[in-house]
Amino acid sequence: MADDAARRVRYSKVAIILHWAIAILILFNLATGFFGDAVPQAVFAFHISSGITILALTVIRIVWRLTHRPPPFLPMAAWERALAHIVHFCLYLVMLAAPLTGWAMVSAYVPKPQPGAAAPAATPSKPRPIMIWGVIPLPRIAPITRIADQPDGAAKLKEAHETFEARHETIGWIYIGLLLLHVAGALKHQFIDRRRQFARMGVGKTPAEWDRRT
To answer: 58-80, pLDDT tens digit by residue?
Structure first.
């Protein structure tokens, strides 16, 4: 009986694994994205691989969420429940938008000329392939790369890259705001409302499990 009650409160093991895997990768990407100049290049090199992994895991998580009913919210005010739905929905959006704009950035990347080299040609040369975790090649987004085939393609591709870069950074700031709301809500429910919110994501015991021990 207690096991059944715990399962009704706690997310499934798959959902918990996806949640924490995505969370760790998001924190890594936010740190390397905003402090890229301060981290070693060897570390920053994994930023793209991590981003594409977030995209893939988010798609899996959305499919899992649509095909497996999540546990009900713990008791809370109606406005808190509405805010939680909004924050969760927006988090899913940015978990898709951030990697996609990053992918668009690398698809529009124009290699910088070396000091003393000749001015770049109107049509840029093909950049080196990008490998995800050093294993899987990441294809560039074809409609973006075809910008290079237009007249003055290098300049247009550079402009596209800067546009995607600005959007990517804006999404990063939105990410931070949503994460702060998400974490603040979890902390409130855990420590102020005393609802064992952490146990829903596998951290600690659910109320039913505590009752079984006592």
So the answer is: 999 999 999 999 999 888 999 99
The pair phi, psi for residue 49, each rounded to 5°, is: -60, -45
Q: Answer yes or no: is pLDDT of 115 > 90.
A: no
> Cβ neighbours of residue 122 under 8 Å, at least 6 residues apart?
151, 152, 153, 154, 155
97 near 46, Cβ under 8 Å? no
Q: Give dist(CA 31, CA 175) in Å, integer.
A: 12
Give Cβ neighbours of residue 167 (< 8 Å, ≥ 6 apart).
101
Cβ 29 vs Cβ 51: under 8 Å: yes
CA distance 116 to 139: 31
* Residue carrying the six token digits 């698809």: 107
